[in-house]
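Workshop exercise sheet. Pairs work together: one partner reads the sequence aloud, the other fills in the structure field after running the prediction. Swap roles for the next sheet.
Pair: D.N. / O.F.
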Amino acid sequence: MDTPIVVMLVVLAIVAIVAGTFAFRSRGRIETTIEPAPARPPAPVEPGLVDAIPSDAADVPAAPVAAIELFEEPSGEPVKANLRSRLGKTRAAFGGYLRAVAGRRIDDEVYDELEEALLLADVGVATTNRLLDGVRAQVSANKVTDADAVVAMLRGEIEAMLSDSVDRSLRTTPDQLSVWMFVGVNGVGKTTTIGKLAAQRSRAGGSVMLAAADTFRAAAAEQLTQWAARAGVDIVRGDEGADPGAIVFDAMASATSKGVDLLLVDTAGRLHNKNNLMAELEKLRRIVDRTEGALHEVLLVIDATTGQNGLQQAKQFAEAVDVTGSVLTKLDGTAKGGIVLAIQAELGLPVKVVGVGETVGDLIEFDPAEFVAALFEG
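Structure field:
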């Protein structure tokens, strides 16, 4: 056979191989990898990771891997944060109105000031009206005349709203795999929340695995991988653009075979108002549900500083997936802490965990009594 013909055939064969490889990868099914936990326990210093892409970056091309800010923690076991001590901004804004009505007789102006206080705290119009209607009914029934009693009644109404029979615990089943899925738009702190919970559960003696199913944001898998290393837990991840369903499928198989107690699944948050993302979340849930009884929580992560925008996010996600509770991040950095009430009253969705700082110990279970005390007690 002539040499030119042989060369031409070789070139054509190489082109065919390259084209086939490109077509396979373009379908998005990229092989997942399981990165085991480090052999040694992680150092007690835990950095916080900051999600780099804002929640409104719906159609913005993915940014490069985000820079990671490090927050030094004190050595030893993390100290649980005190919710009351971390709600200074909300308490200052709300308490100013309460002090303004103290000692006055009840009139329309008192109700107007209480209404303004609740709305500025982002309690929302519907929930504010519900609370004040309850107060007015008590005032009328008990013939109350001083505003101090009205403030006490408002506190009672808020306590009753938060103490409705809702389960705020993060549920697991002993001796079998429990799965928690995390949903929410980009930038609210999903990745950081998952990392902190993994560190807490691992330190408490549980076996934990992470699934990096947010493959659309460049920084997500890298951040979660670093959290896994620091928490001393395994992680299943793929390349950017990989099929999230394949990652969750592989994570479920790996966690089951290794006898893992808890699998935490990160999901994409871009295009939260688009049908394709919601369909993706539903698909991931169906994959988890193939293991009967494994899915225990679908947690919606909300940035507390977004206030009523966060409530709108909650409504959209609740329509797409069966959300079991919410995580409020950055609660210490906002005067809009009343969003806690709006989420529960308008959606029937309990706040289960709140973030009140950067360290692992600053992610705490939500305590309604402590929250109310933080609002009403100086």
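Discussion prompt: Residues 18-31, 39-76 have pLDDT under 50 and may be disordered. What would you look at next?
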